[in-house]
Amino acid sequence: MDTDLHITPIAAFNDNYIWVIHNRRHAAVIDPGDAEAVMAFLRTHSLTLCAILITHHHHDHTGGNAALAQAFKVPIYGPAHEPIPQLTHPLQEGSAIRINEFDLTLAIMDVPGHTNGHIAYYAKTMLFCGDTLFGCGCGRLFEGTPAQMMDSLAKLGQLPPDTRVYCAHEYTLANIAFALTLEPNNAALQARARTDRALIADGKPTLPSTIATELATNPFLRCHLPVLHRAAARAAGQPVANDITVFSILRTLKNDFRPA
Ligand SMILES: [Zn+2]
């Protein structure tokens, strides 16, 4: 791998991040919902686009494809089983992509739940997971089932603990506020709340996080723990049968949660 690789977020829309992998000359973008924002970044840093990586079909992740494909002749990678504009290389679990400009190979993981064909891109110490895993939270279940999302998150949770997690939205503080209602005494979560509030107050992203941090603080990766079984049972007003029920209850609670 190119030792001079940088990974920088472009803020887009209200709370999207378009992640850019770049060296001094080339750039690959992940989920370019906004072509203008990408073009401006490339101009400012004198970079040539060499690849577009898409995690799922939602417009805020793919809306820039047409304009970028017109401006640059580059491969557009994305999930095989979703309608992705200008897709040139359909991918699914077991595939890998090679970005020669960076001497970088990324493996593809199927992570259904937010959408049915959602994929993630993984290389040692970096994960681009779109709207599957968020900082201290997870994506809404627009197409998949709770069981599918739980499997997908468990798969991501098994990556090496130092893997940096590049999510596609800045939702971390709201997710932490929700997590604290479930686990007010989790010291790692309390520490994360302090760190991430300070980052946002400084105008900085809370991302990337790491798999280790998510395992210690993210309730959607912790549904097997007694403390979250108890929180889910309290919310449901009855005992919960298994981890999937816990996940399902927490996901529904989060849908209706408004931070104070
Ligand atoms: Zn989405």
Summarize the structure.
The protein has 260 residues and is α/β, with parallel strands linked by helices. It is 35% helix and 24% strand.
Overview of the structural elements:
The protein is α/β, with parallel strands linked by helices and 260 residues long. Helices cover 35% and strands 24% of the residues. A six-stranded mixed sheet has the order 1-2-3-4-5-6, with helices on one face. A six-stranded mixed sheet has the order 7-8-9-10-13-14. A two-stranded antiparallel ribbon has the order 11-12. Helix 5 packs antiparallel against helix 6 and helix 8 packs across helix 9. Bound molecules: zinc ion. Zinc ion (ZN) binds next to loops. Zinc ion binds next to loops.
Descriptors:
260 residues; binds zinc ion
